Amino acid sequence: MEQNIVKSIIDIYSIPEHTTQILLRKFPGIGDKKISEIANEIEESKHQPLRRLLNGLGIPHVGKKMAQDIVQAMVSQQPVCLEDILYILTDRDFLITVYGIGDKTLDALVDYFSDQQNREMLMHLRDIGMKFTVDAGGYDLFKEKKETFSITGSFPFPREEIVAILEKEGYIFHDNPTKSTQLMLIGEKAGSKKEKAQEF
Question: Full-prediction pTM beyond 0.70?
């Protein structure tokens, strides 16, 4: 990008600033309305749960499911601030208790959150309003039984929206159905996932 507006994740959160808005207007097709939309989306992203942030940091071997499992396990540690979270994510004794975690994932997490530059970046994000909400990935901690679901077929609204709504209500999303998947949402033109679910 010629203007070098975005060089790091921190730069993304400077877009609402006046000087950066002026630079954005120099790009074709970006006017006041688009800048306002970008600013609103960035502000909303500050309130994403920790599991989404973990998934988006680009840490090797940490995808959506692993990020969710890590945060679910963190709930019992009752972190109340970013410093607590950073301590937990570099605690090998804790990380080894996370279901499904392997040595490579554990090492990648400890290396990432021990790195001073990464720690300073996260602290800067906190200082400009980022929330690090430990919500267990939509798990309802007061339910003894966690309902799991998967989705196949097309719906009149985005799949991501369906997943977000159900996770907020305490359901656990399975990208691909397994024997432990309890609910299957079937839309029009359902694909192979429907047949796979019927096998279980």
Answer: no
